[in-house]
Amino acid sequence: MYRKILVALENTVADGRLLPHVGELAGHFRSELLLLHVADGFGARNFKHLKLAESEEIRADRAYLEEVAARFRERGLAVSTHLAMGEPSKEILKIAEGQRCDLIAMGSHGHRLLGDLFFGSTVHEVRHGTSIPVLIIRAGQGKT
Fold first, then answer.
1. Mean pLDDT confidence for 61-78
2. Which residue among 15, 32, 42, 59 has its CA within the 20 to 30 Å range from the CA of 67?
3. pTM summary value
4. 13 lies in which domain range?
5. Distance set, CA 4 to CA 68, 77, 130 (Å)
6. With the C-alpha atoms ordered 38, 41, 45, 49, is the resulting torsion angle positive or negative?
7. Which among 23, 9, 115 has a CA at the least distance from the CA of 62?
8. Gyration radius of the chain's alpha carbons
9. How confident is the model over 47-64, as a mean pLDDT?
């Protein structure tokens, strides 16, 4: 049912709630996982335009993706990684469609009203911008 699952990672502790669900789905359906992190700071958004060198943050994001991928590979899962730069929702949508993903999995912080206006909502933009099914796992508080 799900041949390829795009997993949008934040490189925060919130990923700890999402990853177990994704691992179970991938194992059950024998899905390939595409682990994606979108770096969205000033340097990342202007990386190509300003011809910037990779920052320590970008190198840390790459290392994080590879660390997560290695854990899934140890379980026998097929995994690829992608570090994108720019606006998270736009990059997630572009890559999910371009890679022909069957499911987009992502975490949500559960912001409401003013929080969404202030912080924006990548989840909102993604779920309204695609016909690909979206699995949303609320990050929650406390133990992950």
1. 97
2. 42
3. 0.85
4. 4-138
5. 17, 11, 15
6. negative
7. 9
8. 15
9. 73
